[in-house]
Structures are given as C-alpha cells and as structure tokens.
Design brief:
The chain folds into 2 domains: about 170 residues, no CATH class; about 90 residues, Pectate Lyase C-like (3 Solenoid), CATH 2.160.20. The chain contains 8 helices and no strands. The two termini are about 40 Å apart. It binds iron/sulfur cluster. Iron/sulfur cluster (SF4) binds next to loops.
C-alpha cells in the first residue's frame, strides 16, 4: 500500500452520525460527572436522543453540562455496526438485536482505533520490512470489520493489540530517531523518552518538544501553549484540558480525535492531517 492510500484510509475514519443508530448515546454506561450530568445505564437510550437518532440538545451540549458528548468520537465504528454488521436493522426494531449491537459497538471501536493507528503509520516513509508487517496487520484488521456479530463478539482483541503496538513503537522510534539525529548532536534518543510521564499541570509553554516520546503520558491541564510538538508520539496520552493554543502538532503521531476534543486549542493550533479542528475550540 502506498503512503497516499494509507493516508486516505486514516482520513476516512470519521463518524457519520446520519448512518448510525445513536449507538454512543445508547450502548454505553455513563455515570453522572462534570462531563455528563445524568446516570445512563448501558443499553438504554439517553433522554436527549430523538426518534431519528439525532440529539435534542446537539447545539448546546457544553452549555447544558454534556461536555463529554462533544469529546467522544467513535472513529466511524457506529455507522459500520449499524449499516454493515447489522445491515441497517436498528435496536429499535428488535430488542434482541439491540443487546448484541451494544456489545459489538465497543469491539468495533477498538478495531477502528487499531486501523487508524496502522493506517497512520503506513502514511509515513518507513523501511520496507516494517511497512510490510504493518500492511499485513492493517489488512487483517480491515477484514475483521466485515465479520458478523457473533464472530466479532468472540474475538480476543488483545491478540491484535500486542503485535500492532510493537509495530507502532517501531514506527515511532524510526520517525523520531531520524528527526533526533537532525535536530541534536548532543542529546541521545533516551533523552527524548518521557513515556508515561506525570506532567499534569506542567508548564511547557513555548518549549521545543519535537520528537519526544509521550506515550501514555499524563498531560492533564498541562500548559503547552505555543509548544513545538512535531513528531511527538502521543499514543494513549491523557490530554484532558491540556492547553494547546498556538501549539504546533502538524506532524504529531498517533493522536485520536477524542484526545484533541478533550484538550483546549484555538485557530492557531496546527493539527495533523488526520485530525479535525474541534468546533468548540476558541476562535
Ligand atoms: S446528550 Fe445528546 S449526544 Fe449526548 S448522549 Fe444524549 S443524545 Fe447523545
């Protein structure tokens, strides 16, 4: 697969709520918090979900205390479960379908997330052997999305996560390693490793953090205004309320829309090709 095709696959992984039966508003168990003001058990529709699967308060979610709904993103899993796995049959048509559908949804979400990471990795220039392994993983993951509900429910997702994670680490090390060689003759790759760092509320404004490994880092409410975050590996990092106003994330790696939706940014924040600017960010 060439880089452009992989890029297109990554870009295509966006939610199309018009093709989904409101699965994120129904399937998930949500406990009342500052992000969602009511308790909602798994499998029961949110009180704001309309008969056409639209949200009654869509335009005012944040004002009404439903900030979590503006952060959530299924990477297109909802429409695939609705239209491919269940072939356009809704949980409203048959409660038995609903039970399975709500169990399949989080599995499909994980598959889509893995497809997103694999496709993003393949959008970079990589050594042929690594590209080949990623290609095989991507093909396998894509084929999973076509399986029926029972087959999806019997999957052991961890079996797919482990080998993929290794390939993503290899990709990250390769891309960041090349940049590190270019930007520093003194520092070694290990100086750029801050995997799982606790940087909650840390002042990083204006810093050059290019090529840093921030896998699984805690960046809640970190001040990263105007920071240079190019080629940073953000896989699994917690960016809730991190301040990214004016920051350069144009070539940041392995971000998800949900991570970015949970952070703060503005029109000066530069985002990678696979991330859309959240509509709730300040102008
Ligand atoms: S508030 Fe709207 S978007 Fe959020 S779960 Fe309820 S129906 Fe869905």
């Amino acid at each position: 697969m060439d880089n452009e095709t992989a890029k297109n696959i990554r870009e295509s992984l966006t939610a199309d709520c018009s093709q989904c039966f409101g699965l994120c508003c129904t399937a998930l168990n949500i406990i009342a918090s500052s992000d969602f003001p009511i308790n909602k058990p798994a499998g029961s529709p949110c009180a704001n979900l309309q008969s056409d699967y639209g949200c009654k308060i869509h335009a005012n979610l944040r004002e009404k205390g439903f900030k979590g709904c503006t952060v959530f993103d299924c990477l297109g899993a909802g429409q695939v479960v609705s239209q491919v796995t269940f072939k356009g049959l809704s949980w409203r048509d048959d409660p038995e379908i609903g039970t399975k559908m709500f169990q399949v949804f989080p599995i499909m979400e994980q598959i889509h997330e893995m497809i997103a990471y694999a496709a993003e990795a393949l959008s970079y220039e990589l050594p042929p052997a690594l590209s080949e392994k990623l290609n095989m993983q991507l093909n396998e993951l894509q084929s999973l999305t076509k399986r029926d509900a029972d087959q999806l429910l019997s999957l052991d997702i961890v079996m797919y996560r482990f080998p993929l994670n290794e390939l993503l680490s290899e990709t990250s090390n390769y891309i960041r390693g090349k940049l590190i060689q270019k930007i520093s003759s003194i520092k070694k790759a290990k100086d750029y490793n801050h995997e799982r760092a606790d940087w909650i509320g840390k002042k990083l404004s204006g810093q050059n953090l290019q090529a840093v490994n921030l896998r699984g880092a805690y960046l809640i409410a970190a001040d990263m205004r105007n920071a240079d975050l190019r080629a940073v590996d953000f896989i699994g990092a917690d960016l809730r309320d991190a301040d990214l106003r004016g920051a350069n994330l144009s070539t940041s790696m392995f971000l998800t829309q949900m991570q970015i939706n949970s952070a703060k940014g503005d029109e000066k924040t530069l985002l990678p090709f696979y991330i859309q600017r959240p509509s709730h960010w300040t102008a």
